[in-house]
Each structure stands twice: as C-alpha cells, then as structure tokens.
Amino acid sequence: MNLLKPIQQQKISDQVFEQLKELIFRGTLKPGEKLMPERVMADSMNVSRTTIRNAIGRLVTMGLVVHKQGKGTFVAMPDPKRDNPFALAMTAQNASIYDLLEVRMGLECVAAALAADRADDADISAMTQSITEMEKEVQAGRLGTEADTSFHMAVAYATKNQLHIQVMKNFYDYLFHGIRESLHFLYEDAQNIQLILDQHKAIMTAIVNRAPEKAYEAMQQHIEFVKEFFKQREK
Q1: High-pLDDT (> 70) share of the chain, %
Q2: Which residue intervals of the chain are DSSP H helices?
C-alpha cells in the first residue's frame, strides 16, 4: 500500500493567514491596532477579498483579532487568562513573576544564541525597529511594553526553529504580561530606563556580530537584572 501522497502547494489563503499571523506575533501589528480594510489588504497582497476574509476568519477563531461592529477589525489585546498550555500551567501552579522569568531565561538565552547564528537582514531590521520604538515610547513617558515584547519575539523568529517559535507564540500573552508588569515597577526608578535599553542593545549587538556565547550572556544578564530588581524590591 502506497502511504505517500502528492505534495500540494500551499493555498493562497494559508499564505495570507501566515503572513498576518506573523505580523501580529512579531508585534508589527500591535495589540489594539486596527487592521486596514479588506479591500486595501486585497490590493496590497494581490489576492481576492474572499481570500482576505477567510484568513481574517481564522485569526478571529484563534483569538488574535476581533471584529467590532461598525468600527472594523482590531488586533486582540493579549489576555493572560486565555486558554493555552502556559495559561493553564500558570493558573494551576499559582505561578509568580519569578517562575515567569525562569521560563524566559531558559527559552530566551538559547534563542539569543541561535539567533546569533541564524538571524537574517529582516530579523535584524525587526530588532532595530523594536529598539527604536522603545526609545520613542520612553521619551514620550510611556513604558514601551509592546516594543519590548516585539524585540523578544524578533529574537525568537531569528532562531529559524519552528518549534521554538511555536512555543513562544503560546507563551506570547505571558511574555507580554510579564514585561508589562516588570516595566511598571522597573520604570518607577528613572535610572533603570537607560539600563534596560542598553541591555537590549547589547543583545542585538551580539546577534549582529554573530557571537552566540555573548548573545546568550547578554540575554542572561538582562533577565537576571529584572530578577534581582524584584528580589531587592521585596526586601
């Protein structure tokens, strides 16, 4: 019996779906941001409006975008309570910010090292854009939460490891939640602002210089800094 099946090309709607999903997880399309009209997307991607509608329908089903009657379609705000393996584990174990940071340590230090070997120009561009946005947000007196998250997701995509990316996708809401909670307290002390930016720049510099060990260490130092801040804060 022949168990092999002919290889089929990926459907156009699947390609549209994957492209929009990646823009959301990379943070290019930010939480709360309104999507452009279907007609404009269809023209930009050279596909039919039906194809766009099907792709958006799948994003709605996944909870990544939401329709608002009479207003349009918007990127969904991350919900730490949304059902996914990490949400269930965090709730069941009453996990703390330390638990979250330890998971980040394991995932992201390895990701930074892999990214130093595998990042392409698009990945570097995404990291650069995220840091630029963080600087603008901080200068405007805001926390830069979305840009911070986008940077870490850009590092994840730079690993080129689809399993790692998928894990980070499931972890996304908690990554967002953890960074937001961390920065809220970290930025109460203005001296920490430049330190956080410098730490992100050090990670990117190591990745750009193709230095896996330094990238690993830079990410480790960044997360350890946040952990130490919370340790000192509780004393």
Answers
A1: 81
A2: 12-26, 38-45, 49-62, 85-92, 97-118, 121-139, 145-158, 162-186, 191-208, 212-233
